[in-house]
Specification:
- The chain is α/β, with parallel strands linked by helices.
- The chain has one domain: NAD(P)-binding Rossmann-like Domain (Rossmann fold, 3-Layer(aba) Sandwich), CATH 3.40.50.720.
- Helix content is about 45%, strand content about 15%.
- It has a 7-stranded parallel β-sheet with strand order 3-2-1-4-5-6-7, sandwiched between helices.
- Helix 1 crosses helix 8.
- It is globular and about 50 Å long.
- The N and C termini lie far apart (about 50 Å).
- Bound molecules: NADP nicotinamide-adenine-dinucleotide phosphate.
Length: about 250
């Protein structure tokens, strides 16, 4: 039975949006593997999510470790049907204060690791002639947000990469889609908004639904892209944002 289940890898699934996606995948009967740095957080997440949830620790900023990580997962689980590139970091700083090192750090985790891990997983998805990759973008790729220059660059690049990968990999039966969350209740949003009431008011003021989303809202969209219900959908960006991207 375990063997017949789809195998999903979620980067950064120990908390926040990744956890919300894992919860939904497990509800849908998928074997779900979380990859992040903090082992205690990952253990706690697996304990909460049950026997279909497993984890591997990895610092995705260390790009050269990624091929071995994926090999290790493939030898243990046999396949990866779904990859969710969710791990990400943010940094709020004035444009002129951002150092090259700051910029590179965000780009390495949010963009370079997404490329590296996707490349390694795609090599096996080509063998399977199927697969679904789900990239997590942001409102920072939909409109101009001040004080998050590297984050905005990384998320805009993720959307371009989603389209390029969808074009190139469709002949292999691999679909790539992107979810652009609006403001979702997680530690990352708390850090970005709680010490900045005007920014929080602005974020909510332009969200027609007038509230923040929940990790489960992103989980539901990811479950759709992971399933055959979205079999004819690739290269898209789905905003799950309470209307934030089109708000006045
Ligand atoms: P979060 O709770 O801080 O989750 C980020 C996850 O990324 C953590 O599980 C973290 O795990 C992992 N991570 C960070 N650096 C890593 C590294 N070097 N190697 C491996 N894992 C790493 O934040 P979140 O809000 O759920 O964010 C998840 C994704 O959604 C991010 O890509 C973010 O940009 C995007 N997003 C969030 C919002 C929002 O409103 N919350 C909106 C738009 C987009 P460890 O610390 O254990 O490594």
């Amino acid at each position: 039975m375990e063997q017949e289940k789809k195998v999903a890898l979620i980067t950064g699934g120990g908390s926040g949006i990744g956890f919300g996606i894992a919860e939904k995948f497990i509800e849908k009967g998928m074997q779900t593997l979380l990859v992040a740095r903090d082992e205690e957080k990952l253990k706690a997440a697996c304990a909460q999510l049950g026997a279909s949830c497993h984890y591997k620790t990895c610092d995705l900023a260390d790009l050269k470790t990624i091929p071995a990580l994926i090999q290790n997962i493939l030898s243990e689980y046999g396949r990866i049907d779904v990859l969710v590139n969710n791990a990400g970091i943010n940094m709020k700083k004035d444009f002129t204060e951002v150092t090259d090192e700051d910029f590179q750090k965000i780009i390495t985790v949010n963009l370079c690791s997404v490329f590296s891990i996707s490349r390694e997983v795609v090599k096996d998805m080509i063998r399977l002639k199927s697969g679904s990759i789900i990239n997590i973008s942001s409102m920072a790729a939909q409109y101009g947000l001040p004080r998050v220059i590297a984050y905005s660059a990384s998320k805009s690049a993720i959307e371009g990469m989603t389209r390029a990968m969808a074009s190139e990999l469709s002949p292999h039966g691999i679909r790539i889609n992107c979810i652009a969350p609006g403001f979702i209740e997680t530690a990352m949003t708390a850090k970005a908004l709680n010490d900045d009431p005007p920014r929080k008011a602005k974020a909510l003021g332009r969200t027609p639904m007038g509230k923040m989303g929940k990790p489960a809202d992103i989980g539901a969209a990811a479950a759709f892209f992971a399933s055959d219900e979205s079999a004819y959908i690739t290269g898209t960006v789905l905003c799950v944002d309470g209307g934030n991207a089109i708000g006045f």
